[in-house]
Amino acid sequence: MRDVIVIGAGLSGLMSALVLAEAGYRPLVLARGYGRTHWLGGTIDVLPQADLRQGLIRVIEEQAQHPYARIGLSDMEAALKRFRSLMVAARYPYVGGLERNVWLPTALGALRPTALLPATMAAGDMRLGGELLIAGFHELRDFFPRLIAANLQAQGVDARGLYLTLPHGRRRREYTPRTFAELFEQRDFREDVGRQLGYARGMATRIGLPAVLGLEAPLQVVQDLQQLSGAQVFEIPTLPPSIPGMRLVSIFERAITAAGGRMQIGSAVVRAEHGGDRLDALYSEAAAREQRHEARGFVLATGGIAGGGIQTDYQGGVWDTALGLRLQSPAGRAEWFQSGFLQELGHPIFEAGITTNARFQPINCMGEVIFANVVVAGSALAGRDGQQQRNSSGLALCSGWYAAHGLSGMLAA
Amino acid sequence: MQHITTDVLVIGGGATGLGAVRDLAMRGIRAMLVEKGDLTHGTTGRYHGLLHSGGRYVISDPQSARECAHENVVLRRIMPSYIEDTGGLFVTTPWDDADYGEQFVAACQETGVAVEELAVDAALRREPALNPKISRAFEVADAAADSFFAAYGIAHAARQYGATVLNYHYVVDMVRKGERVVAAIVEDLRSGEIKRIEAGYILNAAGAWAGKIAALAGVSVTVRPGKGTMIAMNHRMVNTVINRCKYPHDGDIVVPIHTVAVIGTTDVHVADPDVFGVTADEVTFLLEEGEKLIPGFRRYRALRAWAGVRPLYKDREVSSDRAISRAFKLLRHDERDGVGGMLSIVGGKWTTYRLMAEQAVDVIAQELGVTRPCRTHEEVIPGNEEGKHFWLGHNLSCVETEGSYGELICECELITREQVIDAIVAGGAANIDDIRRSTRLGMGPCQGGFCAYRAAALWDEIRHTQPAGSGARTILDQAPAVPVGVALLHHFLQARWKGLRPIMWGEQVRQASLDHLIYHDLLGIDLLPAELTHRPDRASRLVTEHPAIATEEHAV
Q1: How close are the terminal C-alpha atoms of chain B, in Å?
Q2: What does residue B503 show for φ and ψ, rounded to 5 degrees?
Q3: What is the distance in angstroms between the Cα of A343 and the nearest Cα belonging to chain B?
Q4: Model ipTM?
Q5: What residues in B contact A339, CB-CB < 8 Å?
Q6: Given the DSSP bridges, would you call strands A269-275 and B260-264 parallel, antiparallel or unpaired?
Q7: For labeling, which of A56, B74, B92, B357 is most exposed (least CB within 10 Å)?
Q8: A155–B528: do the CB atoms touch at under 8 Å?
Q9: Would an 8 Å CB–CB cutoff place A184 in contact with chain B?
Q10: Sheet strands side by side (includes B143-145)
Q11: Alpha-carbon dihedral B484, B490, B493, B495, rounded to 10 degrees
Q12: What phi, psi does B514 have (nearest 5°)?
């Protein structure tokens, strides 16, 4: 029997699994896929306010039910510290912290706040002045440098957009961010691109490129391009699939495995077995028949609607896909959504999730703990629309860390 | 004010108006068409895509059945590439009157609708997803037609004969000289310019809006707008058009078209053709009815719900909209109202558009003293010379032949960069919705999740780097000072949302969450200044936001 099973391999599940592995619990990670990791841009967003620390203090003081309030500032710091040290060790360092947000350009030319960002994106910080060059490739359909530059200009940023020529002999049948990440790992490809950037740079001091600068050693790619072009180079996240997201997953996977954990991707948990208030076993989908997994403790890091942890139906039902818990949501489908797709207020259905107590154990409508040996982390938590509130990645890391520590304490007791 | 003179002015850029303008031009008559939105913006672009065999109307409306049966053959000949030859079945389910089958066959024979009974097991072999409890099955010549492609093809053909076709031209007034209508005052919604179009004769082919046009000319035409709601399901559970073998009623047909199957329709009277919406009750009803034809229907993923407004002409008191004939009517205002110079054509079906146009143009030609006969039933629409029907694998086959995988802008519908650019440059698309209508971009499962960003970016790049020149097909006189791509994107996403909201459950909610992740969280469209997402000034305001065509569709 395993000590613990983590359900879900998004950021919250990965962080939980790392904490539990390092605590010696040899976790098994069971997941259908990698959650939203390959969709998100790879930044860690905590809260969108300019003065991040003040914003956090206010949330913690004023919203006792908010996961940040339950975790507390010092544990949030500890979680992000562990994350940063993991990334440094993998030579993919992150910069920033819980003091203030940094504004980075998006692939639409909007300026987006984030707390922690890969060093490969650091020169995109909008506080840095100077002329910007945004460069991309016609072949990459998920990044349009002229659109980005035009929209930045409309916001008073000195920016120019440009297409680079795909180096000779690099034709592929199809181009995705992944194709380009592989191409950038080849030295002669980056040398060609670096030289083109040098010619095209003009007065620009910073160059924004799509976030496809290699999977394994992106920092090296950025440094090479900087040397060849003479400008600072930074990445801008593209439409999914996200190369920065893939980098995060592979760093976490290696660390979890090295610490004694095991990853089993492609194994969706479809139901559970319990006795009283303890969860005993899970069943995952497998080719021939379901596979049964027993454990002493469980982390439910199954994600929200986007991540696939929550499902809805035509009659208005909302439930969690792993344990089958019925979830609270607005009554009737008509109440699930706002009249416009993009509105200041989010869509109520995206706040659906599992209600928990302060230790992130799932509770029923009476406030009673449903399973004493289960903790919940990430977007599966109720009452949060991380996408709308721009805090899903920060919440995932902090709640994953906190829930895993809590479970670890319960198992040791 | 600009003055334009033409022999005949056609009002309405749906199938009928376009058919008429082509017919006029082919008879050597100088003709012009104005449409307030994009071509097919009205009912033509909002129906399930059925090329009627006529079977549906053999009992309720024999005249319409005859017309459909006749035109079915003609359209297959002149525009085969817009038609997928799915064939159709009428099946008797346990909920249907078992005796109707006999009456149906007899009525088919009377009205000239080709029909053949199929053994139930043969029908089930052909369509295994059909309800196994059906008791009878009849095969007819129904097919799936792409009303968008057809409209663009007819418009192109008309232009080749010298006709002028203007979209985004809104009729604000009709001018009478005594007892004769002599001109229309139109507003070019893009530029705000007012134009006076003098015409020897005016054809009111505004469909559900024909009453509004007639009123401007001071004559009364009572069009009873009948709203029909449809749902596109993300799967072709059948490859044949399936009808319930019963007296026409709501939710009794499933049309496989392109990559989806559309269930239709409801029939609800609405007071105004510009104000309608899809209700939750209609969605529930359609799914329940779909379940009777195809068990498990409800469990397929619904992609989108929308409504079209039937241009039913009411010339007598009837108990319900369904009781109004689907046959069309020519209203000669000289004989009917004592007002000359204008003809209204109302009622009818997409399938009979050509016949409607022919009969209307016959009257006009006679008025103008033109004796050349109609040839639209003989001459093939350009691009259809090979005589081959559309087939489902067509787009994929093109992509495979050209090796254009890397050029796909809309992966769901297999639309390449070249097609999008063509829609913008040659097609004169004013917004992403126009690109959608001419290419099907954004009509697949993700409903614009990925392609809307790409299309908006391409639009901006083209309009920034190669400002439109002069001529009728241009969009803006010069490159916009502020990029409008984001405003187009914003508009398109909000417009797609209208059709998504009524069918949001299951995987489609997850899809919406992914789209929300992309546009809100990842791209931060909400973080852009409002002047980029909503254009405040008239000069650069999006034409689609004009109150004349911004149809109100909310009603969940």
Answers
A1: 43
A2: -120, 30
A3: 8
A4: 0.97
A5: 501, 554, 556
A6: unpaired
A7: B74
A8: yes
A9: no
A10: B50-51, B143-145, B83-84
A11: -90
A12: -65, -45
Question: In chain A, what residues touch B406 (CB-CB under 8 Å)?
Answer: 139, 141, 172-175
Burial classification of residue A330, based on how many CB atoms lie within 10 Å of its CB (0-12 exposed, 13-18 middle, 19 or more buried):
middle
Task: Give pLDDT tens digits along chain B (556 positions).
Answer: 899 999 999 999 999 999 999 999 999 999 999 999 989 989 999 899 999 999 999 999 999 999 999 999 999 999 999 999 999 999 999 999 999 999 999 999 999 999 999 999 999 999 999 999 999 999 999 999 999 999 999 999 999 999 999 999 999 999 999 999 999 999 998 888 999 999 999 999 999 999 999 999 999 999 888 899 999 999 999 999 999 999 999 999 999 999 899 999 998 888 888 877 888 889 999 999 999 999 999 889 999 899 999 888 876 555 566 666 767 899 999 999 999 999 999 988 999 999 999 999 999 999 999 999 999 999 999 999 999 999 999 989 999 999 888 899 999 999 999 999 999 998 888 889 889 988 999 988 888 899 999 999 998 888 765 444 433 333 333 445 567 788 889 889 988 888 888 899 999 999 999 999 999 999 999 999 988 887 655 445 566 667 676 655 544 3
d(CA A69, CA B299): 41
Q: Report how far residue B130's alpha carbon sits from residue B293's, in angstroms, rounded to the nearest whole number.
A: 6
H/E stretch holding B3 reads: strand B2-11
Verify whether the Cβ–Cβ distance A150 to B504 is below 8 Å.
Answer: no
Beta carbons of A140 and B454 less than 8 angstroms apart: no
Q: In 3-state terms, what secondary structure has residue A110? A: coil
Extract the tokens encoding A277: 């208030």
Distance CA B251, CA B265 (A): 5
B280, B287 contact by CB (below 8 A): no
φ and ψ of B421, to 5 deg: -65, -40
What domains are there in chain A, each with its CATH number?
A: 2-33+245-412 (3.50.50.60), 101-241 (3.40.50)
Q: Is B298 touching A (CB cutoff 8 A)? A: yes
CA distance A175 to chain B (A): 6
Cβ contact, residue pair A313, B506, below 8 Å: yes
- For residue B115 the two structure tokens come to 């029909």
Q: Contact A40/B521, CB-based, under 8 Å?
A: yes
How would you classify the pairing of strands B2-11 and B31-34? parallel
Q: Label the pairing between strands B83-84 and B31-34.
A: unpaired
**Secondary structure (DSSP) of A314-369:** TTS-EEETTT--B----SSGGGTS-SSSS-SS--GGGG--B-B-TT--BB-TTS-B
Q: B505 touching A, CB under 8 A?
A: yes
Find the helix or strand (DSSP H, E) in which B253 lies: strand B253-257
Ordered by start, the domain boundaries in chain B are: 85-143+225-310, 394-545
Token match 């030295």: residue? A187
Min distance A161 CA to chain B CA atoms (Å): 10
Nearest residue of chain B to residue A149 (CA atoms):
B483
Q: Which of A108, A112, A143, A183 to mutate to test the interface with B (most CBs of B within 10 A)?
A: A108
Which residue matches tokens 């009803």?
B285
Name the residue among B408, B505, B518 with its Cβ closest to that of A312. Answer: B505
State the DSSP code for B352. T
**B451-465 and B432-439 helices cross at what angle (nearest 10)?**
110
For residues B446 and B442, what is the distance between their CA atoms, to the nearest angstrom? 7
Domain covering B85-143+225-310, topology: D-Amino Acid Oxidase; Chain A, domain 2 (3.30.9)
Q: Which chain B positions have a beta carbon within 8 Å of A306's beta carbon? A: 510, 513-514, 516-517
∠ CA B163-B169-B172, rounded to 5°: 125
- In chain A, which residues have their Cβ closer than 8 Å to the Cβ of B456? 147
d(CA B26, CA B372): 9
